[in-house]
Design a protein that fits this description.
Keywords: Ribonucleoprotein, Ribosomal protein
Oligomer: single chain
Strand order of the largest sheet: 1-2-3
Strand content: 15-25%
Number of domains: 1
Protein name: Large ribosomal subunit protein bL35
Family: Belongs to the bacterial ribosomal protein bL35 family.
Radius of gyration: 15 Å
Order of helices and strands: HEEHEH
CATH architecture: Irregular
CATH topology: Factor Xa Inhibitor
Number of strands: 3
Pfam families: Ribosomal_L35p
CATH class: Few Secondary Structures
InterPro entries: Ribosomal_bL35, Ribosomal_bL35-like, Ribosomal_bL35_CS, Ribosomal_bL35_sf
């Protein structure tokens, strides 16, 4: 069985915590920021933990050895 390749787009966007959860950047900070409230923009700073259903897909298909 050959080694599996990690998707290079995924390794730039996601990383794993020590307990195996997937950390990602918050969405919604690229464009059309005038119509978004200040509190929404403030909450979208930094990183967040991905939900379990999506994290399972990322770990299985895109980060196989992470």
């Amino acid at each position: 069985m050959p080694k599996l390749k990690t998707k290079s787009g995924a390794k730039k966007r996601f990383r794993l915590t020590g307990s195996g959860k997937v950390v990602m950047n918050q969405a919604g900070k690229r464009h059309m920021l005038r119509r978004r409230s200040q509190s929404m923009k403030r909450k979208a700073r930094g990183t967040t933990i991905m939900c379990d259903a999506d994290a399972r897909i990322i770990k299985r298909n895109f980060l196989p050895y992470a």
